[in-house]
Amino acid sequence: MRIVVLVIIILFEFLIGTSEAQLKIGFYNQVCPNAESVVTDIVRDAAKSDHRVPAFLLRLHFHDCFVEGCDGSILIDNGTTSEKGAFGHQGVQGYEITENAKTKLETVCPGVVSCADIVAMAARDAVAFSQGPIYQVETGRKDGLVSNMDLADRMPDVRDSIEVLIQKFIEKGLNDKDLVILSAAHTIGSTACFFMEDRLYNFASSGGPDPSINPRWMPEPSSACPKNGDVNARLPIDHGSEDTFDIQVLENIRNGFAVLQSDAKLMDDPTTRAIVDSYFGVLAPLTGPSFEEDFVTSIVRMGRIGVKTGSSGNIRRVCKSFN
Ligand code: HEM
Ligand SMILES: *[C@@H]1O[C@H](CO)[C@@H](O)[C@H](O)[C@H]1NC(C)=O
What we know:
This protein is mainly alpha-helical.
C-alpha cells in the first residue's frame, strides 16, 4: 500500500515537473552565445531612430503572453483569421523589429532562438533603454503552432471593470499586485484618443467626463483629444514622463491623471488601491516596497504564462510564418 502511494506521488511530481516550463536565465549561453546581444543591438538601433519603439516592444510582450501564452502567436500572419487582427490587439506594433532580430539570428545560429524568446528579450531591453530596471530574462520558450483571432477574446480591455481585470489576470496565474504593477508599464508610450474619448466627453453615456479625472488636468487631455476630433491622434499615457520608465505613472494614477480607464479603475478597488498607495507610504523609500524590484518580479511571472516547451511548440524560421 505504502509503495503504491509513493509511486503515485513520484509519478505525480514527475508529471508536474514535465508539464512546467523549463525556462532559465541564459538558456542560449551554450547554443547561441550572442543571442541576447543580437536582440539588444537591434532594439537599441530601432529605439535610436524612433523613441516610441520601447513602448511598442513592451506592449507586444504583454499581448503575446496573454493569448495562448508567451509563444509568439501574435506575430503570425495567417490571413484574415490571424490572432494578430483581433480587436483586443488593436494598435500593437513592433513586429518588424522582432522580425529583424530573427533574420539576424538565423544567420548566426539557424533554427535555435525562438520568436517567443525574442519578444521577451526585446521587452527586457525596452525597459532598460527607458531607464527602467535592468533584469535577467528567462528563456527557453518554444514558438506556438496556432494563431486564431477568437483566442484573443479574453484580452483585458480598457473598459473592463476592476473585477473583470482582476479575474482576467487570475486566469493567467497573475494576482492583483501583478495587475497593478504591470499596468504601470503605461509609464512609457501613448494611446490613441479612441481609448480616451468617452472618458472625456461621454462617460458611461452621462454626456460628461469621468468624475475620476482630476479637473485641474482636464485641459491637457481635452486639447490633445478634442471633442469629435481625430480618434487616431495620440496622447502620452504617463503625463510628464512618457519616455522614462518610472513610478510617476502610479503617482499620476493616484492624482486622477490616469489616461486609460483601466488604470483609473485601480483606485476603485480597496485592494488594488492599497497596492498603489503602498509605494507612497512615508517609510516606502526606506523599507520598500520597491516599484522597480516588484516590476521585475511581475514581468518575469508574466513571461512564464503558458510557455511551450518540448513538442508543444517549435522554433520558427520566420516569426510571421509557421514553418
Ligand atoms: C491591465 C490591462 C491593460 C489594458 C486594458 C491596457 C490597455 C492599453 C491601451 C488601450 C493602450 C493604448 C493602445 C494604443 O492606442 O495604441 C495601451 C498601451 C500600452 N500598454 Fe497597455 N494595457 C494593459 C496592460 C498592459 C501591460 C500588462 C503592459 C506591459 C507589461 C502594457 C504595456 C503598454 C504599453 C507600453 C503601451 C504603450 C504603447 C504605445 O506607445 O504604442 N499594458 N494599453
Ligand atoms: C491558418 O489559417 C487557415 C485559414 O483561415 C486556418 O484554417 C488554419 O487553421 C490556420 N493555421 C493555423 C496553424 O492556425
